[in-house]
Amino acid sequence: MLAAVFPGQGSQSIGMMADFYNASDEVKNLFDEASSILGYDLWKLIQSGSEEKLNKTIYTQPAMLVSGVAAWSYFKLHFNISPNLMAGHSLGEYSALVCSGTLKFSDAVYIVKNRAEYMQNAVPKNMGAMAAIIGLDDDAVVKLCVEAQGNDVVSAANYNAPNQVVIAGHKLAVERAIKLSKKFGAKRAILLKVSIPSHCVLMDSASKKLRNLLKTMNFDNFSVPVLSNVDVKAYQNQSHLVESLSNQVCKPVRWVETIQYFKDQGIKICIEFGPGGVLSGLCRRIDSSIKVIRYDSIDACIEVKEENLK
């Protein structure tokens, strides 16, 4: 039993995806098509742009969407293998939907372009932040946020792994939570390099705009089931897609439960399609019995062949 997962924001880096791009016309075509929709040269940005620019969500989200789909595209050129389940972390869910066959690539680029703009504009510049809290269980993080919030917003945003939860909200409240975290017993608290506070109520306005956009889009049947970040259930129909994808920007990502669902369904191997290897590390921490393969370079083809996947 095999699962495919796709990373989101935080896995990007200048120079990513170069070997796939240089080895495959299909990958080049994906970046070219995306660039024509976005109105700028996405590949040039990824290869020779500034890290600061790539880390802005309006650029990060399209870059990670296309990178996930590109890695999957290269995989499908070399292997006649279909996973039993798919999932994506936050923005990575759109890559999963494209690769599952339910969302056209061009539509996904258009949606993500607008999603990123909605999210960027939801909170004034430098007013929001996110931080990773290491060494506290979920309940302790919730209590930490309650104590730190005051008149501001701060809450759990990503349940990434046991004792690793990302929080999001107003910058001042997140900074207070970082300072208070040692009092609660945290090992580390790290301010993340992101331009928006995703997966919290500050994204409510973005959620409403995204819902209206998604209602105008067409979704096809799934070739592979995709799990929702919001309720950890396989998407059933267009209504479910619209509601979960719009709610996703202001609700926590339930990644621990996603990997636990894989385990319960008999998943033995999980392949991460896209750069960074973040999800591979999280999967190992959640359940080390699941074999993890990072498909972020051509060399990964060797590991897939060695596993003799069927």
Report how far apart the termini are. Answer: 9 Å
> Percent range for helical residues?
40-55%
The total of helices stands at: 14
Q: What Rg do the Cα atoms give?
A: 18 Å
How many domains make up the 3D coordinates?
Answer: 2
Q: Could you say what the CATH architecture of the largest domain is?
A: 3-Layer(aba) Sandwich
**What share of residues are in beta strands?**
15-25%
CATH topology of the largest domain: Malonyl-Coenzyme A Acyl Carrier Protein, domain 2
Molecular shape: globular
Quick one: how many beta strands? Answer: 9
What's the name of the CATH homologous superfamily of the largest domain?
A: Malonyl-Coenzyme A Acyl Carrier Protein, domain 2
Instruction: Please write the CATH class name of the largest domain.
Output: Alpha Beta
User: Spans with pLDDT under 50 lasting ≥5 residues?
Assistant: none
Mean pLDDT figure: 93
Give the topology string: H per helix, E per strand. Answer: EHHHHHEHHEHEEHEHHEHEHEH
Q: What summary fits the major beta sheet? A: 5 strands, mixed
For the biggest β-sheet, the strand order reads 6-3-5-4-7
* SS-based class: alpha/beta
